[in-house]
Amino acid sequence: MQPLIDYARSFRQQTAARPEEFARLAEGQAPQALFITCSDSRVIPSLITGARPGELFELRTAGNIVPPYDPEQPTGEAATIEYAVEILGVTDVVVCGHSHCGAVGALVRGDDLTAVPAVRDWLTHAAPRADGTTADGDPAIAEAVQSHVLAQILRLRSYPYLARRLDAGQVRLHAWFYEIHTGTVLAHRPPADTFVAL
Length: 198
Ligand code: ZN
Description:
By secondary structure, the protein is α/β, with parallel strands linked by helices. The protein contains eight helices and six strands, in the order ααβαβαβααααβββ. The protein has a single domain (29-197), classed as Carbonic anhydrase (Beta-carbonic Anhydrase, Chain A, 3-Layer(aba) Sandwich). It starts with a helix and ends with a strand.
C-alpha cells in the first residue's frame, strides 16, 4: 500500500504542472461514455481507452453485472446508470468483460461460494450457466464472458429511459471484451454475432 500512498502524496505536483486542465474539471463533467466493467484490478478503463479525467463515467461491479431493472429496489448500479444517461447525457454505453474473470470463471466452474454469500447472491444476476461441465481453460471462460457481456447489454435495453434513447438513436451500446494478457480489445459485431478486434 505504501507505494500507492507515496504516489497519491505527490499527485498534486502533477496537477500543478497542468493547472488549466485540472481547473477546468471543477466546472463540471461531460463524459463521452459510461463504461461498465469488472472491479478486477487488471482492467483499467482509462488505460485501455486513453480517456483523460472527465471523459469516462465508470461503473465497476464484480463480473461487470448490470442488475435487472427494478424501480422498487434501488441499487448503486441503477443510480450510476441513471445519472450517466439522464443527467450527464452520455451518448455511448460500453459493457466490457475481460479474460481470466474470476466472477464469471466461478460461475462457469460452479465454484462453491458459500464462504462469500454476497458474491454468490450477486452472481445470480449473471448469465452463464453453471453446469459444471466446462473445463478450466481460459478459452471456455472467454466464451462465457462474451455471452455474459451480451446478456448485460440486453439487460440495459430493459431500462426504460435507455430503451427510449436507443429507439430514438440517441444512445449506442457497445459490447467489449478485453484480453488482459495481450491488451487486445474485441467488440461484438452484430452482423456476424461475433467478437472481433477493434
Ligand atoms: Zn472480472
